[in-house]
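Appendix B: complex inputs.
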Amino acid sequence: MRTQVVIVGGGPSGLLLGQLLHKQGIETVLLERKTREYVLARIRAGILETGLVNMMREAGVAERMDRECFVHHGTCISYENEMFAIDFHKLIGQNVVVYGQTELTHDLYDAREAIDATTVFEVENVQIIDADRDAPYVTYVSGGAEHRIDCDFIAGCDGFHGVSRKTIPETVRKEYEKIFPFGWLGILSETPPVHDELIYANSTRGFALCSMRNENLSRYYVQCDQTDKVENWSDDAFWDELKRRLPEAIAEKLVTGPSIEKSIAPLRSFVTEPMRWGRLFLCGDAAHIVPPTGAKGLNTAASDVHYLHEALVRFYRDKDMGGIEHYSEKALARVWKAERFSWSTTNLLHRFPDQSDFDLKMQRAEIESLHYNEIAQRWFAQNYVGLPY
Ligand code: APR
Ligand code: PHB
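Resulting structure:
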């Protein structure tokens, strides 16, 4: 088989890239290790920057999103009984959109099916060969047989545990990592959200987040130990702990109910450089991870897709290598800014095991600066809604 671009990984990065390339007449084959159902069972964040919303529209997959999403003009931050709003709209005239990553991925799979592009699920042993030469190819096992696809380029959209990043020789690759000493325990419940905006809560008991998907579907998180297990947390224990971390007036309004999903996620910052090796491009979680404070994971994946799609279109339409040559540099410049924001918001809002009284005072002073200083709020707002591409 031969195609123009092989996309390894059918998460949001690979799917969105495939759709944008299809719009420009560029052919792709997408290889996914799991089934569509498995991919769609993953619950992830649901805050979309305008850049991603626009790309969904450009890709022609925004119809349901535009109908069902919720526009959020700001977000709230609390510390003990204090709470304040950062009004993105008033501060910088921008907003974000609430639409679950699961829904977005669902729409992208439907769109891919409709264009009849080749998608192979449950592939095993994907190998990317000769990515640093002129005639690369990808081999994989499907249905017990080995297959080969010759191609011009490979988009490594296979997430943090994928094969693409590891294809780049260790002598070329440099990795930067920070593991945070805690996790997030999250639940999804069919209850109305406690507030109309998200609430990021700093408390002496640790961080909490009140988020939502729609009028009757809420997503809540509490900071937990790195080694904690979901089995240790009954629904009642979760709700109790959440209430204790929120301002009293909010805790009183919280509607609780059975969880329909409960999971623990570790918090990690990670970047690999470069993001291109010859004809192989890394995109999304394959190249970088952010802690979820600030909801930058999906949005940073989307900015990679933007630069990569632009680079490939320039190559096929104008025979211009410029976008390809500068992909890594351009993508990384924005990635590092999102890493900084996610890291600093994580530091601002969590309890760290080794935090001294001095560290706590510093954290408090920083939250108060954000509460009372409009310039600090504008800076936060610009980063939260997403820096320009
Ligand atoms: N071969 C084929 N597919 C693979 C392989 C492999 N060797 N390894 C992993 N995959 C698939 C995974 O099963 C997954 O469906 O690649 C996909 C990667 O998807 P994501 O992990 O969702 O990564 P990405 O598309 O970059 O999305 C980034 O999603 O993971 C969140 O927090 C992240 O919100 C961010 C966004
Ligand atoms: C979520 O809704 O799951 C969510 C929202 C904002 C974040 C992280 C997760 O910063």
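The domain at 5-72+95-177+268-345 is CATH 3.50.50.60 (FAD/NAD(P)-binding domain).
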